[in-house]
Design goal:
Rossmann fold, five-stranded parallel β-sheet, alpha/beta, 2 domains
């Protein structure tokens, strides 16, 4: 039986849970270029809150006690992972300002691995990409940097991540995993490797391209479905009826899919459709449905800001110089993840109107928000400060229990972007 030594490239929301699961069976090195992140992990701290701290520390202790024969250790030193024979890539695959795929992290990781891979090694990609990316973009880099021949000297696999940040029920091991490999034998080996940790089982796709496409359409489908109800929300707002009431009524039919309107941010749903659209356009096809869904969902932040301004005007308020508080900046509730959050778009729209805007979020890292978006958020709510408008953008548990009356001026506007509050407390909701 082959003896595996696993290196997982990227120790974020995807890479860390994967590393810890594999480390219960094999020696695992979690590689990350962020040395501060590495130091935190090796001291038993995970700021993403994805890892169970007891499990992290147990895996760290196993590695120390076994002299690296089993367990987990984080590192930022490339030399540490040269003896590994399985490399799993979990780096980000974002989009640029033109909504085009940004493959720079993926290509950089492939170049780095090309310098150290050896005959017989397998490189498995988990990062979300467009169909064909692994073999057309990554493999040539691996070949060039290593001098090795693909499918003779080294092999690749693709197993798309299905991590849902903040979800403690649908965790890594409880969600079926799609696997694939560059040859039939490698596909079987990759599948067997993941079977070792995935309780829900695996699905071996017939090719890497099929596995890549499966990931792309998972989130594109959800994006399109949400865009439909977001468009309904825009229509029903003009009609003057509540979207939640309509969905409750329609939801009484057995086959109605009850999606909710809202901001669509995060690392998957608001990004992956652009990867699929990019591939389609390369092949001469314009994906109308996918891109129209993206346009609708990207318009919701602007709608929320303009709706708040209109409500303020209707109440006789002055817009320029008014004070607004946005509650929440992460892309979803009870989670510290601020990647591709659309709440910042609300902030920017209100600022353009001349509104003075504060953001408060007890889950988000002030430093990360400033680094990613150039926006300062409050450390804590300022006692006694009251606002002309409040926007509940994220339904953190803390906000559901908050007494909003202490934060708002008389005649203030309250907008509930998550439809999470009693409607008697709000002026409008999405």
């Amino acid at each position: 039986m082959k003896s595996y030594k696993i290196a997982i490239i990227g120790q974020g929301y995807v890479g860390l849970p994967l590393a810890l699961e594999f480390s219960t069976h094999y020696p695992v090195l979690g590689f990350d270029i962020n040395s501060q992140r590495v130091d935190q992990l090796n001291s038993g701290l995970d700021i993403t809150l994805e890892a169970e701290i007891d499990k992290l520390n147990n895996c760290l202790n196993k590695y120390r006690e076994s002299n690296g024969d089993i367990g987990y250790k984080a590192t930022s030193q490339l030399a540490d992972i040269t003896q590994s024979n399985i490399f799993i890539v979990t780096v980000p695959t974002p989009i640029d300002k033109y909504n085009a795929p940004d493959l720079n992290p993926l290509i950089s990781a492939s170049k780095m691995l090309g310098e150290i891979i050896k005959k017989g090694d397998i490189v498995i990609y988990e990062s979300t990409v467009f169909p064909g990316c692994t073999e057309e973009e990554c493999v040539p880099v691996l070949e060039k940097e290593s001098g090795l021949k693909f499918n003779e000297d080294f092999f690749v696999g693709y197993s798309p991540e299905r991590i849902n940040p903040g979800d403690k029920i649908n965790t890594l091991t409880n969600v079926k995993k799609v696997t694939s490999g560059s040859t039939e034998e490698i596909a079987e080996e990759v599948n067997d490797l993941y079977k070792k940790i995935i309780k829900a089982g695996t699905h071996k796709a017939p090719s890497i391209k099929v596995a890549e496409a499966s990931k792309a359409i998972e989130n594109a489908q959800r994006d399109v479905n949400i865009s439909f109800v977001n468009e309904l929300a825009l229509i029903f707002d003009r009609i003057g009826i509540d979207t939640s009431d309509v969905l409750d009524a329609a939801g009484t039919k057995y086959n109605f899919l009850k999606y909710k309107p809202g901001l669509v941010g995060g690392h998957c749903i608001s990004v992956d459709p652009y990867y699929l659209a990019h591939k389609a356009e390369q092949l001469g096809y314009h994906p109308d449905v996918i891109l129209s869904g993206r346009r609708v969902n990207d318009s919701i932040a602007k709608f929320i800001a303009s709706k708040v301004v209109k409500l303020l005007i209707a109440k006789g308020g002055v817009i320029k110089g008014s004070k607004s508080l946005i509650l929440g900046v992460t892309f979803k509730e009870n989670c510290p993840d601020v990647r591709n959050t659309k709440v910042v778009d609300i902030y920017n729209e209100l600022v353009d109107y001349g509104v003075n805007v504060d953001i408060y979020d007890p889950w988000a890292s002030k430093e990360e928000v400033h680094h990613e978006y150039g926006v300062e958020i409050l450390d804590t709510l300022i006692e006694g400060k009251k606002y002309d408008s409040l926007i509940v953008a994220v339904s953190h548990n803390e906000f559901l229990q908050m007494d909003l009356s202490k934060l708002k001026k008389d005649n203030a506007v309250v907008f509930d972007a998550k439809a999470c509050l009693d409607r008697s407390l709000v002026d409008a909701r999405l």
